[in-house]
Write a structure and sequence with these properties.
Radius of gyration: 30 Å
Number of helices: 2
Low-confidence stretches: 1-7
Largest sheet: 24 strands, mixed
Structural class: mainly beta
Helix content: under 10%
CATH architecture of one domain: Sandwich
Number of strands: 43
Length: 447
């Protein structure tokens, strides 16, 4: 049972609301502090079965014996050695005042690849040594309602992981996250001044409805969400409905979302959807690209099949960056207050931009001319596109007045004297008249 407990000062002002979680009705074991000892009580018999000053030993005892929930009461528990979980382990705390403090030099909790059906919930995991928290290799794991801080990788999931959920957690004070697993859901978390959040391999990985505030990488050119083929091929990533915001200048040159194949030329990142995210770079000097697709090289275009749709990118140096990418579509995105809307470097193939605000890639209109019986070539005017390379602009014209139709066929083209404008040429000079030559035109940027 959960209830809110209101903490007030003598004047009656509410200081905070804490969520208090009473123990489960039937816990297999209850861990609690009693003076200088940590004790494991059998939740069914009420017997104290094991006690020690070594918190890791007591929790390990409960893990080895439990056939249900292990409930850890409020208190700070120093964990000096690794705790190895087994099948069907459920560890639940009372909230942020249930603190597991890693005092070792390595990971604190280990879940091997043969372990499944594990849940860790409703407690705080921290470290005195800025090392790591949970080393997960297992299947069907849930990490929820955790407060994670001061660890390079608060949660690390290897390529053995399958069916994992990380939800409703707070990563802060440098706590990072990494996954190379498959069928992974990361949702409704807050990454507030966290460490790097990476995908280094795996299939069907989903970042949904998370908030990233000043989530910075450790070196230049990393992203708040950083996808790169370090461990295995990556196939199927959805990054949707996330907020990424910088409220201070990043310590390194930083992107918002990075999808990369830069780590390995023998592996690829494919089938990625990036949609309905907000990336706000804060107009800081080290805030570079909002969304960056970057393959290994011109020879190895190993970022493939990417859809970027419905995102808002603002106050970054560059809106979208594309390099060494094969097949990507940018649709219905909005760019605001960006110095350079698009940068395309090296070799990229089959890149399509459509209906993006702040980077016009298609335009159309009506043009009316007065024929004189001798002129067969007319200036339509500015095409209004974000690109001016005539090799990347397709112009289509259609005659709609009778005199324009009689003088057709007609073709549209980029004005060689001014690449910001387009013209139309008729097969023969239209007849003389006033406003008697009418066409409709379309101009579109090609990849």
């Amino acid at each position: 049972m959960s209830e809110f407990v209101r903490i007030i000062d003598p004047s009656g002002k509410t200081l905070r609301n804490d969520l208090y979680n009473s123990p489960p009705d039937v816990a297999s074991y209850i861990i609690f502090k009693d003076g200088g000892l940590i004790k494991a009580k059998n939740g069914r018999t009420g017997q104290i079965e094991f006690s020690s000053s070594d918190a890791a030993a007591v929790i390990q005892y409960a893990v080895n014996k439990a056939d249900g929930i292990i409930f850890i009461r409020n208190g700070s528990y120093d964990i000096a050695s690794i705790i190895t979980l087994r099948n069907d382990t459920i560890i639940v705390g009372e909230g942020r005042k249930t603190i597991l403090n890693n005092t070792s030099e390595g990971f604190m909790i280990y879940i091997d690849q043969y372990t499944s059906n594990v849940r860790i919930s409703n407690l705080k995991i921290t470290s005195e040594t800025s090392v790591n928290g949970i080393d997960c290799h297992g299947d069907n794991v849930i990490f929820d309602n955790l407060f994670l801080e001061k660890m390079a990788y608060a949660i690390s999931m290897t390529a053995h992981v399958s069916c994992a959920t990380v939800r409703d957690c707070l990563f802060t004070n440098g706590a990072g996250f990494s996954t190379a697993g498959s069928d992974v859901l990361i949702s409704n978390n807050i990454f507030d001044e966290s460490g790097i959040v990476t995908v280094s391999g795996g299939n069907n990985i989903n970042f949904l409805s998370n908030v990233f505030i000043n989530s910075f990488g450790r070196v230049d050119y990393q992203g708040a969400i950083h996808v790169d083929v370090v461990v295995t091929n990556i196939n199927g990533v959805v990054i949707a409905h996330n907020l990424i915001r910088f409220t201070e200048n990043p310590p390194h040159k930083q992107h918002g979302i990075v999808v990369s194949g830069e780590a390995r030329n023998t592996r690829s990142t494919t089938n990625v959807i990036i949609c309905n995210n907000i990336v706000d770079g804060g107009a800081f000097a080290n805030s570079l690209k909002g969304i960056y697709l970057h393959g290994y090289s011109a020879e190895y275009l190993n970022v493939k099949n990417v859809l970027v749709e419905g995102n808002i990118v603002k106050r970054t140096t560059t809106g979208f960056g594309i390099a060494n990418t094969d097949t990507a579509m940018f649709i219905n995105n909005r760019l605001y207050d960006v110095t350079n809307p698009i940068s395309m470097d090296d070799v990229s193939l089959n890149i399509v931009f459509k209906q993006n605000t702040g980077y016009i890639t298609e335009n159309s209109g009506t043009a009316i001319f007065s024929g004189d019986g001798t002129t067969d070539d007319f200036s339509i005017g500015a095409h209004g596109l974000a690109v001016t390379d005539p090799n990347r602009i397709v112009v289509k014209v259609s005659p709609i007045s009778s005199d324009a139709i009689a003088a057709s066929p007609c073709v549209g083209y980029v004005d060689p004297a001014d690449n910001t404008k387009i013209r139309v040429k008729f097969a023969r000079a239209p007849a003389s008249g006033t406003d008697n030559v009418k066409i409709i035109w379309e101009a579109q940027a090609a990849s």
